[in-house]
Every structure is written in C-alpha cells, then in structure tokens.
C-alpha cells in the first residue's frame, strides 16, 4: 500500500515547516537581507548510513518557495551511502532565509532516519551469510512510517506488511479470543482464505511448539515463531519445513547480540522492532556561511 499524501516526504515536511515557523522566521526576516545567500555543507560527525534525503530535499525546496527565495544548488549523497566522520554528504546554496528555515527540519529528519538506516545495517551485517532477511515491524513513529521504512531499506533491511489493511497476521490475542469463543483454530484459519483476496498473505504467530500443528493444518503462508528459545526455534523450523512451504519468521526481543544465533536456526525472516523504535539519532551538521547575493 502507498502512503497517504500527508505521510509522504512532501506531506511530512509541509507539516513540520508549518509547525516550526507558523508565522515565519522572525529572526532571519528581521536580521538578514532578503538577497543574502547561504552556502552550506552537510557534514558527518560520526560514522553511519545516510537516509532521509528525499525529506531533506523537500525541506529546502519548500522553504525556498515559502520565503520567496531561490535554491541554486541542492546536491545530496544517495540514501544508503555509508560515511565516516568528516565526510561531506551534500551541499545546498540558496537564499539564506530559505536555507535557514529548512535547516532544522532537514537535519531532524536526516539524523533520525540515518540512525534507523545505520542500526538496520548493523543487523543486516550481523546475519550476513545466513540467508535470513531482517525486516521491520509496525512499531514506527506515527506519521513517519513511510520515511522510517524507506530508511530501513536504505540500511539493507526489508519491510513487513505496511498496515493492518495489507495482510492477515493472526497474533496471540487473536488466538486467545478464538479459543475463548470455543472456536477451532484450524477451521477458523481456513475460513479466512474464503474472506480475503487470493493475493493476501496469511501469517500466524505462535509462542509454543504445541501450537504449530493446528496452524500448519490450515496451510498458512507464513508462520511466526515468537520469543522461542534457540532449541525450540530449530525444532519449529524443522517441523514447518517437513509439513508445509510456509515461510518462517522469528521475532521477540531480537538484539544485535542475539540476531545471528536466531538467523542460524534456518528462519527466512527476523523481524526487529528495534530498527525503528530504538535507533539513535546520528550527529550530522549543516555548516553554513552567509555571503552576498
């Protein structure tokens, strides 16, 4: 599913600029000549992986239009670029009032999204050679899901379902309601297929090995093994492989220290909420000089 207009880079930036300067930038407008030009470089203060450049472009472009100025240069390295401290990742030159209005919004988004990409890259590097994919979850910042998921891709990761509307994912609470209602799990899961499109994926989460038989009997597309020990995870993968063609996903408190061991049990996917929940903001700076027009 595509994001709604409000959740695209353009929409997010428009809201951010309106929030940050609802009646204009009183400092720049009272201090700087309208024709003053700012020439700035985006500089890395620490190593990482770049993400968020689409949003940064929008910030500088929209701010130039809002201030009635011009944008002469806007060059940014592509998302996914790995960088070291001191690397110059981009340059912007234009009317100073516009550049300075955009600066904080552009940096906020670049720093946060590059943090997501950098953490994702660390998880992807950790599972290299296992054949497992690192995927994100719905644990995203409200309103920033499209941007954060693009940052996950920039870091080499993959995206899970976009929203509740895009795939069936039966979790522990769904199963608890089914059982409390006296319904048979296998029968209920089979009925799901009759109520959805043939292109919609059905995934079911289990947190114990003894739950697998009823799920596999329903011929689902993906089995999610949640918070399994490594021994149980290996046993679960073996059982799924012997009974179905379903993909196997592992989840639950996955860390950089544990992710490789999980991937080595033969799972296809490792979902990591920390990619978007726990990413640290990176230190990027916009070093600006102001010159004549």
Question: Descriptors for this entry?
Answer:
TIM Barrel; 2 domains; 41% helix; six-stranded parallel sheet; alpha/beta; elongated; 11 helices; 293 residues; Aldehyde Oxidoreductase, domain 3; 12 strands
How would you sum up this structure, described in words?
The protein has 293 residues and is α/β, with parallel strands linked by helices. It has two domains: 5-123 and 280-291, Quinolinate phosphoribosyl transferase, N-terminal domain (Aldehyde Oxidoreductase, domain 3), CATH 3.90.1170.20; 124-277, TIM Barrel. Helices cover 41% and strands 20% of the residues. The chain contains eleven helices and twelve strands. The chain has a six-stranded parallel sheet with strand order 6-11-10-9-8-7. A four-stranded antiparallel sheet has the order 3-5-1-12, with helices on one face. Strand 9, helix 9 (230-243) and strand 10 (247-251) form a beta-alpha-beta unit. The radius of gyration is 23 Å and the shape is elongated. The chain starts with 8 loop residues before the first helix and ends with a strand. The model has no long low-confidence stretch (mean pLDDT 94). Keywords: Glycosyltransferase, Pyridine nucleotide biosynthesis, Transferase. Pathway: Cofactor biosynthesis; NAD(+) biosynthesis; nicotinate D-ribonucleotide from quinolinate: step 1/1. This is nicotinate-nucleotide diphosphorylase (carboxylating). Involved in the catabolism of quinolinic acid (QA). GO terms for molecular function: nicotinate-nucleotide diphosphorylase (carboxylating) activity.
